[in-house]
Specification:
Elements (H helix, E strand, L loop, with lengths): L1 E6 L18 E2 L2 E2 H4 L2 H6 L1 H16 L5 H8 L5 E6 L5 H5 L4 E3 L2 E8 L6 E3 L17 E5 L9 H9 L3 E5 L20 E5 L12 E4 L3 H15 L1
Helix pairs in contact: 4-7
The chain binds nicotinamide-adenine-dinucleotide.
Length: about 230
């Protein structure tokens, strides 16, 4: 049985990482447009790098929460694929093994000119003048606003195969990720966990839980493992 999990910033909120939708267009005191868009990078690459250096450093000091940990347990019973909009590594650190990062990863950087040259840097800083092996500037390995999401079609194929789809901590407002729910088959059981979840997503086979991830996900995981 295939369980697909679609997560957004809300699942990491209880670990201490802020969502930006909950803070009026600011993300950790920065204007989102300035630090998370290609135009922002062109205007002020130093500011953008400082922002992601701070996010990386902050990430090194937080831990996966009960929701991340419960999702990792699902692998004891199901074929599980996590598709996350998050750029943190909390699913990995909780023990999940099959994860697609739609919007990139904080712990990686890539060449500005040769996007296939991707490097893991852990929680270290990068700065102007740090270069790839071909001598080009490194940039955060992040999908910024206005950039294509290269893994979206792959993610849609994964969602199509789901018997159970869990959607956790996402406003379903950021496209194309938000459209993934529509790839679920008619027989797929969908659970939506978000304190601000809307009541209707065009799918009648849906259970909506208006609750924090850390509260709702562990008992749901237990229930699914007992029931199937
Ligand atoms: P989003 O659009 O996915 O919205 C966040 C959602 O989380 C909201 O619907 C909110 O109700 C919900 N939420 C808040 N606290 C919750 C909790 N305890 N449990 C469950 N749900 C909770 O995300 P966003 O913040 O608008 O960010 C959009 C994009 O920005 C992300 O997709 C990501 O690329 C990036 N981002 C990443 C991180 C991260 O990696 N941790 C954090 C912030 C933003």
């Amino acid at each position: 049985m295939k369980v697909v999990v679609l997560t957004g910033a809300g699942i990491s909120a209880e670990s201490g990482l802020k969502t930006f939708r909950d803070s009026n267009g600011l993300w950790e005191e920065y204007n989102v447009e300035e630090v998370a868009s290609y135009n922002g990078w062109v205007r002020n690459p130093g500011l953008v790098m400082e922002f992601y250096n701070k996010r990386r450093s902050q990430l090194s000091g937080v831990q996966p929460n009960a929701a991340h940990t419960a999702l990792a347990l699902l692998e004891n019973k199901f074929d599980v694929h996590i598709i996350t909009q998050n750029v943190d590594d909390l699913h990995e650190r909780a023990g999940s093994t099959t994860i697609t990062h739609l919007h990139g990863e904080l712990t990686k950087v890539r060449s500005l000119k040769y996007p296939e040259l991707i490097y893991s840097i852990g929680y270290k800083d990068i700065k102007l003048g740090d270069l790839c092996e071909k001598g080009e500037q490194l940039r955060p390995h992040i999908v910024w606003f206005g950039e294509a999401v290269p893994l979206i079609e792959y993610a849609a194929q994964i969602v199509e195969q789901a018997d159970i789809l869990l959607i956790i901590g996402t406003s379903l407002q950021v496209y194309p990720a938000a459209g993934l729910i529509h790839y679920a088959s008619r027989k797929c059981k969908v659970y939506l966990i978000d304190p601000q979840a809307e009541n209707y997503y065009g799918n009648s086979n849906i259970v909506i839980m208006k609750e924090k991830a850390g509260i709702a996900v562990p008992p749901l995981v237990k229930e699914l493992m007992e029931k199937h």
